[in-house]
Amino acid sequence: MAEVLLTTTAAQVRPRLLVVEDDQTIRSFCQRLLRLTYETEAVANGQEAIALLREQTFDLVLADLQMPVIGGMELLQHVRQHHPDVDAIILTAHATVDTAREAMKLGALDYLSKPIDAEQLERTVRTALELRRARKEKERLSDLVVMYQFSQLIATSLDVEQQAQQITQFLWQRFSPSALVLSLIDPYDLRLHMLAARAAAGPFNRQPPIALNAEFTPEDLIQAHLRLVHCSAPEHEDIFCGVVLRTHDRAIGYLHLVRAAGAPPFDASDRRLLSVFASQIAASLDNARLYQELKEQNRQTIEALAEAIDARDAYTYGHSRQVTRYAVRLAELLGLDAETIALLDYACLLHDIGKIGVRDYVLLKPGPLSNEEFGVMKRHPQIGVRIIERIHGLQPTLPTIRHHHERFDGKGYPDGLGGAAIPVEARIVAIADAFEAMTSERAYRPAMDTETALQILVEGSGKQWDPELVELFIQMIRSEGTRLKLPDRPTQHRCR
């Protein structure tokens, strides 16, 4: 990272100076003297200087104030707008405080009065280059700090959308663009999506993704990106800064920033820093996407396992998914944090996994269970814990799986916990589980209507279930129940 910012030392490359002076005698004098120490070019007026600045890189410009065609002040304005990394010293035969002040406003580091004194010229140039070196060193250190801050920022999340927002906010503050767009390629269908966008003029409209050919080139990617945001590359390239996002030698997206006309252009330092950011962004987004894919695959595996358990009886198919929808939404309304809700999601899908250890004659019995049979059924939370406890990533779900049949009054199973001693996640699942069972058809009874089931929850509030959660759950069902309900399916739930 630091290597990108480090420049070759002064001992290896001499500073490059440009003398702009219409008086040939003075121009030759300055050029001969400065060439002893620095790489020095000389031209006769501002127009020639502007042309040379387009072709070559200079550290310092010494410009006469009064010149034909383009004078020193106009040249300074051009340098400030188009070459902000170049420093300047003004040469003038009419040195006044006002002249010096005006030159300083336009970015000049100092000024020299004519006739030029050799010792004063060497000292002024040496001082200007020393100030430049110190400023550059400060900028390099500042950039290193900024890169560290950026790497720390994007390391705080493995969520692609959240990372995209963090990246957008950081780049907006650091580079002050008028517009910024970040696009990402879906590796499965090779479609380029607009991941994040921001503009000073207002929000971007989300556009449909653009398909890329399997053999797409970087230029294909750039053109697709520009079509995605309905723009073309600007005529003035110094206000446009774009970079292909690459990781593991493959392109995964594109990032571009644009500055408004009249704003400072993107200089070499900006572009160099953005290229470093781009490598960090690409690696971070790629890792986050892989993590999310793995996480989704894990959830799909768990959901398939839950479905397989529910499917032992045609009447219980889909039960765990429905319980999950009720419980997760209740947890959101309760204000639980995202990590807790994510674990609750897994716990709900797995809450009945212990039924895999319950024999069919008990699990599928169409009538009431005997005391002995009910004792067998009551062991399913503990069986579930034994199955899951060997999976390290799912261990935080064990308390919910174990205690989802505890009662608020302490008369539940398997441990007889009561009140706040029951984990809140287990108290949530207990309500969602009971309501789902009551409102689903059973082999031994038809499904209850919603109001009847809610009334049973009210009657059991403070006894079987947490009263505060029951109240919130009832509000949720009455306002959102239709949206939360999965498509109707025959179910049977033998847990009581």
Describe this structure in words.
The protein is of the alpha/beta class. It has 3 domains: 2-142, Rossmann fold; 158-283, Beta-Lactamase, CATH 3.30.450.40; 311-484, Hypothetical protein af1432, CATH 1.10.3210.10. The protein has helices spanning 2-5, 24-35, 46-55, 72-82, 97-105, 118-154, 160-175, 218-228, 268-310, 319-334, 338-350, 360-363, 371-377, 380-388, 398-403, 424-438, 450-460, 467-484, and strands at 16-20, 39-43, 60-64, 87-92, 110-113, 179-186, 191-199, 210-211, 240-247, 250-258. Strand 4, helix 5 (97-105) and strand 5 (110-113) form a beta-alpha-beta unit. Helix 10 packs antiparallel against helix 11 (338-350) and helix 17 runs antiparallel to helix 18 (467-484). The protein is rod-shaped.
Average pLDDT over all residues:
85
List the helices and strands in order. Answer: HEHEHEHEHEHHEEEHEEHHHHHHHHHH
**Strand-residue proportion:** 5-15%
Strand order of the largest sheet: 2-1-3-4-5
CATH class of the largest domain: Mainly Alpha
Q: Which fold name fills CATH's third level, the topology of the largest domain?
A: Hypothetical protein af1432
Poorly predicted sequence stretches spanning 5 or more consecutive residues: 1-11, 490-496
Distance between the termini: 61 Å
CATH superfamily name of the largest domain? Hypothetical protein af1432
Q: What is the annotated CATH architecture of the largest domain?
A: Orthogonal Bundle
Helix content: 40-55%
> Globular, elongated, flat, extended or rod-shaped: what is the shape?
rod-shaped
Number of helices: 18
Domains, number: 3
Structural class: alpha/beta
Number of strands: 10
How large, in whole angstroms, is the Cα Rg?
35 Å
Main sheet specs: 5 strands, parallel
